[in-house]
Design goal:
The chain has three helices and twelve strands. Helix content is 34%, strand content 28%. It is α+β, with helices and mostly antiparallel strands and 211 residues long.
Length: 211
């Protein structure tokens, strides 16, 4: 098996590089610089040769042409993301169910049917952990071993929260797409909404309203 990748910088929280898939023929045999075998759970990458992988969804094979691969290290673990070009055929569908969705500040998604989707308790738990670790980081001595340990813990919690949010959004989007033929949403800038909400709160506080 190949060795672990080496990155140019060690200070960045996420170290990554991208390599393109080079296709060619040699003695009548076609080859690719990037090849993935989901049965043996291995991937061949330029310079790294064959590397063991795990957890690539539940696919048996990838049907499509591999364009490139992005290798990155995050929270002490290595990941590879594959970009694949596939041909997909979508059948014509006569829409029968249409739903509108709205992004909110308090709730993640609100539908026109009156359904509310908010943050789960485990995401709030991670947010609480991050708050405590950030306080500990600010008090730690620069360059110390303790500061390095806290940074690694922060990276791990950030990664877990990121995965939890991704999982939550995936479940919401799957639920909406499975149950509806057309989904309509406004083109809103969430950052501006958050700023407006903060400004309104400050304005109300200046007028003697206790929130």
């Amino acid at each position: 098996m190949g060795s672990k990748p080496k990155f140019k910088s060690k200070n960045k929280p996420r170290q990554s590089y991208r390599t393109n898939n080079i296709r060619g023929t040699y003695k009548g045999k076609e080859y690719n610089s990037i090849e993935i075998d989901l049965n043996s759970r291995t991937i061949k990458l330029p310079k790294l040769k064959e590397v063991s992988i795990r957890g690539y969804r539940n696919l048996i094979s990838i049907n499509g042409r591999i364009i490139n691969a992005t290798i990155y290290k995050e929270a002490g673990k290595y990941y590879v993301s594959i970009c694949v070009e596939e041909n997909s055929f979508i059948k014509d569908v006569v829409p029968t169910k249409i739903v509108g969705i709205d992004l909110g500040i308090k709730d993640l998604v609100i539908t026109s049917n009156g359904e509310y989707f908010g943050n789960k308790k485990y995401i709030k738990k991670y947010e609480k952990k991050l708050k405590g670790l950030n306080k500990a980081l600010s008090r730690s001595k620069p360059g110390s071993k303790n500061r390095y340990k806290i940074k690694r813990k922060l990276q791990t919690v950030y990664k877990k929260m990121k995965n939890a949010r991704k999982f939550l959004l995936h479940n919401i989007s799957k639920y909406l797409t499975d149950d509806n033929d057309i989904i309509v949403c406004e083109n809103l800038k969430v950052k501006n909404m958050d700023k407006t909400d903060t400004y309104q709160k400050q304005s109300m506080m200046h007028h003697g309203v206790n929130l």
